[in-house]
Amino acid sequence: MSSATFSQTRSQALNLEKQTELLLSQYSRFQAAVTPEAGPDELRVLAGIKQLLEKRDDTITKLNRITEAQDINAVSTSKLQQLTRHKEILNDHRKSYLKMEAAIQDERNKNNLLFSVRSDITAHKKRTEQGASLNANDYILDERVRVDSANSFADRLLQQAYHTRDELYSQRQYLAGAQLRMLGAVQAVPGINVLISKINTRRKRDTLILATVISVCILLLFFL
Predict the structure, then answer these.
(1) Which of 65, 67, 91 is nearest to 79 (CA)?
(2) Can you cite a GO biological process for this protein (predicted)?
(3) Cα–Cα distances in angstroms (integers) from residue 217 to residues 108, 120, 167, 170, in the given order
(4) Measuring CA to CA, which of 26, 30, 64, 152 is 20 to 30 A from 169?
(5) What CATH number labels 2-133?
């Protein structure tokens, strides 16, 4: 029963792979002739590819469950190889789809940018040719819009700079506090050293006095 289920599911996987290859071939044609925007046909093919990839993910998951449900000794090597191959083909198809989609989008962005630049050049030429008849107020308004845009960009940069300055100031205060604590510790060390030195001096003095007293007592005992 499990072998029959595996074969049926694998047959579905093969069918989905053929459908995916067909749609990928159709999608590659849009890469050869990129339009400013995705048309209905391109969107239909794109949606079909995504749907097929999702179905193939589900099919491979089902094949995994079938093989995992069987005894490890009962699973043939050919089934495992077939399952691995389906995963590899799915991965290759997904990479091809993503690569073509990225290439189409890049080409579309480039074409739109070129179109925008050409439109700006054409508009500039028209303004130049009609310079004598241009309305001064319209020109001033255009310049004002450009200046406002530049000011807005400058304001954003200044806000970022102020934020960075505040961060640096906060870090500087933290470092200054740490430095003060370090200096306090360093200054406290000499005081400890002086205290230890005084203790050692007093200990030596007491030892010397004790030794003198003992010597005197010995001499007195000897002469008496």
Answers:
(1) 67
(2) vesicle fusion
(3) 112, 116, 76, 71
(4) 152
(5) 1.20.58
